[in-house]
Amino acid sequence: MKKGEILAKAKEVLAIEIEGLATVREKLGDEFVRAVEIILRAPGRVVITGMGKSGLIGRKIVATLASLGTPALFLHPAEALHGDLGMVVPGDVVLAISNSGKTEEINALLPSFKGRGAKIIAFTGNPDSPLARAADVVIDCGVPREACPLGLAPTASTTAALAVGDALAVALLAFKDFSEQDFRRNHPGGTLGERLKVKVAEIMLTGEAVPKVEETASMSEAIAEMNRKGLGCVLIISQDGHLEGIITDGDLRRAITRYGEILSREISEIMTPRPKTVFYQRLAAEALEIMERHLITVLPVVDEDGHLAGIVHLHDLLGKGEFKFVV
């Protein structure tokens, strides 16, 4: 087969899939609206089920729904028949995917779904099938033809189901109070670039996790606090919470070299006053830039008045270990 023939075949497949999507797009109507309304009103989750290739599409739709704020899970039909049906509880909505609408494993589950009070939404290419007749809402995902020349391997039909699943997830998103920050909370393992787009307030350590003592504390108390919190530093604050200084492991080594015995020294003699800080509403990328420029691994976070708001560690910025969000 020549290069031209290969490319022609590939473009033909894409043309068939585009044709299928266009067909399904034109058929979308009131049933799709009803599906969105049912899911929005449901107190439970969206339980998606499908066999074979439809099951793979279902798993992807589950992932998309969940990441965009609609709780969802995948239920394998065969496993459901052997105990996993217990995953479906009252208030759930079942989304069943079957191009033929005749998948035995799925249709065998329909009475049980209904008996548990679950609404059933069908993605099918056969509106006159057992699945369609049992469903509360039928979304016609039928395509004119498959891209497979044998008409056997699901191709255009699975693409259509996947696209309608995406449309459902995004349509639901439009009616939810779901922000970019919520999306990031659902993606704590994202790329470094995405991590650094969040505000420092979202990743900083706060409260009891912050190593801090008042400026009137003793050096013994400051070192004990440093040991407890394990960040290699302790922040020095005034009685009203204003950040006055920082003592790091390096400061202790330098003080020991200079003074010998340091426990009897005042904190003000050991600390670095007016340490580098970052405003809590700045981006994490800016905090990283400050840390790289000054070769430091911890950075105090302050508010508008210079009061201590938290602390950020280099590992939190780079994603080593758990990426900690404020909740």
Sum up the structure in keywords:
327 residues; alpha/beta; Rossmann fold; CBS-domain; 2 domains; five-stranded parallel beta sheet; four-stranded mixed beta sheet; 16 helices; 16% strand; elongated; disordered C terminus
Notes on the structure:
Helix 3 runs parallel beside helix 8 (156-173). The protein is elongated. By secondary structure, it is α/β, with parallel strands linked by helices. The termini are far apart. It folds into two domains: 3-178, 3-Layer(aba) Sandwich (Rossmann fold); 192-318, CBS-domain. The longest helix is centred in the first third of the chain and has 25 residues, at 3-27. It has helices at residues 3-27, 30-41, 52-67, 77-80, 104-107, 110-115, 130-134, 156-173, 180-185, 192-195, 200-203, 219-229, 249-259, 267-270, 284-294, 314-318; strands at 46-50, 72-74, 93-97, 119-124, 137-140, 212-214, 233-237, 243-248, 272-273, 278-279, 298-302, 308-313. 45% of the residues lie in helices and 16% in strands. The strands form three sheets. It has a five-stranded parallel β-sheet. It is built from 16 helices and twelve strands. Belongs to the SIS family. GutQ/KpsF subfamily. Keywords: CBS domain, Isomerase, Metal-binding, Repeat, Zinc. InterPro entries: CBS_dom, CBS_dom_sf, GutQ/KpsF_isomerases, KdsD/KpsF-type, SIS_dom, SIS_dom_sf, SIS_Kpsf.
In short:
By secondary structure, the chain is of the alpha/beta class. The protein contains 16 helices and twelve strands.
